[in-house]
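Lab notebook: predicted structure, single chain.

Context: the supervisor wants predicted structures on file for every construct in the current expression panel, including those that have not yet been purified. This is the next one on the list. No modifications to the sequence; it matches the entry in the shared construct table.
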Amino acid sequence: MKESLNYETIDSLYEYTNRLIPAVLNLSTKLRNIKDEDTMELMKAAIEGIEWSFNAILLNMDFLRENNIVLDEGKIKTTLIEFSESLENKDLLLVSDILEYEIVEILNDVNRRVEPLLNKTNI
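Prediction complete. Output recorded below exactly as produced.
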């Protein structure tokens, strides 16, 4: 039962991050150029999506390892800390850089690594 829940979570993560990544890249560009109310609303939604995605990854690390998917947990946690600090400091240029160069990289890496598992199990 638990393993089935893990697969479902990873499948949801994969599907969700395929939509989240383009939105995060769009937000990164907007933060560099346009800082209007719509951009701030997009940022709130992206933060919620990133938080959910990273929690899903971190809570399923054992399951991923059991399926020979090894992720850099330290890098994930460090990125979250840096992202939180940049938000707290309202450093939108740094927020933009972390989104584009670190968070998107982690999400793409996770998707590349879990895709074969999902294809193999045909959830």
